[in-house]
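Just curious: can you write whichever protein you like plus the matching C-alpha cells?

***
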Amino acid sequence: MEYFRKSHFTYSGGYLGYIRQDGSHVFIARFKRVADSKGPWITALVKSWTVDEYLEAVKASSPLRAMETKGFMLTHIKRRLRERGYPVTRSGFEQMLTDQIERSYAALKSQGVIG
C-alpha cells in the first residue's frame, strides 16, 4: 500500500502529478481556475487517501468528485460560505445554492420575467 508523500507531488502548467515509488508519474488533478486549492488538495490526499485508492476513485468519476466523497471542498467555495454565514459543510453549500436559486426566482418573478 503506497501512501501519498508531499515531496513526490509535481506541478506544472496547472497540472498536479505524483511520482510513485516505482518512478512512474501519474496525473492527479488539473487546476485551471482555482490554483489556490492546490495546497489543500495535496494535504487532503496525504491525510485521507492511499495512491491506489485515489486513482481507483478517479477512474469511477473525476478528481473533484472523488475528493468530495471524503469531505473536501474547494477553497473559493469555503470562502464564499464563510462570507455568507453558512456552515462550511456540504449541506451548507447545498443550502447556499438553494437560497440563491430562490432569491433569483423571486427577483425574476417580481420583474415579470417569469409567471
Observations:
- Helices lie at 38-48, 51-60, 63-68, 75-83, 90-110.
- The chain has a mean pLDDT of 93.
- Residues 16 and 60 are 19 Å apart (CA to CA).
- The chain has five helices and three strands.
